[in-house]
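In line with agreed milestones, work has continued on tokenised descriptions of protein folds. One protein thus recorded appears below exactly as we store it:

>
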Amino acid sequence: MEQMDLALEAREKIHKDVEIPGVTLKSYPSESGRAKISNLRVISEEGRQRIGKEIGNYVTIELEQGGELDAEKYLYQELKALCGGEKRRYLIVGLGNREITSDAIGPYAIESVYATSHFSEKTLKKNRWKAISVLSPGVMAQTGMEVQKIIKPLVEQMKIEQVIAIDSLAARNVSRLGNTIQITDTGICPGGGIGNARKELNKDTLGVEVIAIGVPTVVYAETIVRDYVEIGLKNKPGSGGQMAEWMEEIKNSSMEDLLVTGKDVNLQVRKMSKIIAAACNHFSGIGSEG
């Protein structure tokens, strides 16, 4: 199994010099040079089939050391761009299991996101705040309910105009663990990153657009082994058959379901969740110019 929640990694799997019909990619450094921003768009059905990602926008922010403020700034800007128009009522959902650190990006971020929907309309307009509701619904193993079934009635009853979902992801590249943020307007499939996909959260299922913000916190062990085997056998005469044989053995082993995370995952998750929460608060108008 080769899991790639990041659209950028799905694009990188195809040779960089090969143009992919229906897929565009622009990358550039932040002003300080402490973050790299990649804007990938899937604009056609052919592009969707080639990289396996839904039609839409995918922005990836990769942090260097000390790049937290850059990440917050660009995430806020992308939130503004993807949540454009006159929408005022938002539901920010922290997906995942708070009891498992590598799956706690969503719940941890929600702890620091300010709710404003309980204020009067007059107060909201005076302060130029958006009406923000927040929710950490847990996972099906804790509640016995699909997250989609919890969220949809709230969207309808509270007249939510857009949902922002925050979740942990799975990466292909170990170097992206805990220091990369993806934001997309294509929605999200809770649990998809760890092979435990639940019902999707998107416009088709909820009736409103869903912006998904994710941070990769795990990588499949099989992927790590595959990469190192490829490096070890690269350019060795007659290694092609051996490579195929080893890969088949790995595929059929218990390693297929083994996930790996970093030793400092707790610090990474706390750091990234605070960046996301700060960007969401900036977007809502709390403590900013609105």
Observations:
- The chain has one domain: 7-218+265-284.
- The longest helix spans residues 265-284.
